[in-house]
Amino acid sequence: MDTTIPFALDAYLARIGLKDAPVPAADAEGLAALQRAHRLTIPFESLDIALGREIRIDPTSVFAKLVSARRGGYCFEHGRLFLNALEATGFAARPLLARVWLGQPDTVPPQTHTLALVTIDGQDWIADAGFGGSYSPPMPLVDGEEAEAPDGARFRIARDPEFGWMLSRNGHPGMTDGRGSGEGWQDQYSFTLAPVFPVDLALSNFWVSHAPESRFVQNRIVSVPLPHGFATLNGRSYRRHSKDQSAEAEITDPRVYRMRLSLMFGIDLTADEVGQLGLFGDPV
Residues 222, 47: contact at Cβ < 8 Å? Predict the structure, then answer.
């Protein structure tokens, strides 16, 4: 964290709905509470790529976008903001890079995801405030460890002989962004504990936001966990699942798209910006 740029903890806590609550303690319960509040209020989104805006992941830019402007972002933005919040609340944490296997063909994926390694009383934990595919709770980094998410899905951490560690999920496919369509355990992402430097994050962030192969370049993606469910907007396809209730729709009107962005995901774009996304024909 750049200590010359102060992190406004009060503003961050207000953004994630904890303004009037005690600052989370630097323990396992506090980590879970902080990550949960972050994920429920700050959406995952990649819309600025389609709008031709550079994705900046320095502390000032990320805070200005996700907190002050009340927008969302993808993992490198969430990851930076969450690490700053962890530091400001007394946690010891550092970034990790991960390979996302969810929905991938049988090829080794690039390192296009970041999460946090948090140390609490000598025990390492993983915490993830920016995975757009599903909601995984913080978990101690122990081989074979399992945990249950609020949506009922189970997550498991296991050592992987080739890729270090693998996080897998077993849960309802409706509680994902659509890539988790199968039943049973599915690999989400793998990671190692190798040190990650700012230049490593910058390189991965550049690939994600510029490479033609990147799903964020190819698609306009938005998602957010619900208290007991998940909602996604991929292009014009809207999906929401909560407990036993599901809703799916193809949005054909840009006005409806704009309204859905605002009401469900808390993202307020102008009509011109929605037109620039290229989902409803060329902008006038």
Answer: yes
Instruction: Quick: pLDDT tens for 156-209.
Output: 999 999 999 999 999 988 899 888 777 799 999 999 999 999 999 999 999 999
Architecture of the domain delimited by 9-276: 2-Layer Sandwich (3.30)
pTM: 0.94
- Find the catalytic residue in 38, 48, 78, 128: 128
Helix spans in 115-270 (H): 198-210, 215-218, 254-265
List the single range of 12-21, 236-245, 250-259, 261-270 with lowest mean pLDDT.
Answer: 236-245
Which residue of the set 38, 75, 151, 177 is catalytic?
Answer: 75
* C-beta separation of 124 from 111 below 8 A: no
Decide if 113 is catalytic.
yes
CB 230 within 8 A of CB 241: yes
The C-alpha atoms of residue 193 and residue 203 are separated, in whole angstroms, by 18
Sequence-separated (6 or more) residues with CB below 8 Å from residue 21: 13
Could you tell me whether strands 237-242 and 44-45 are parallel, antiparallel, or unpaired per DSSP bridges? unpaired
Dist CA 252 CA 102 (whole Å): 28
- Amino acid identity of 12? Y
Choose the catalytic residue: 38, 113, 172, 241.
113
* CA–CA distance, 56 with 92 (Å, rounded to integer): 24
Contact 168, 155 (CB under 8 A): yes
Active site annotation includes 121: no
177 is catalytic: no
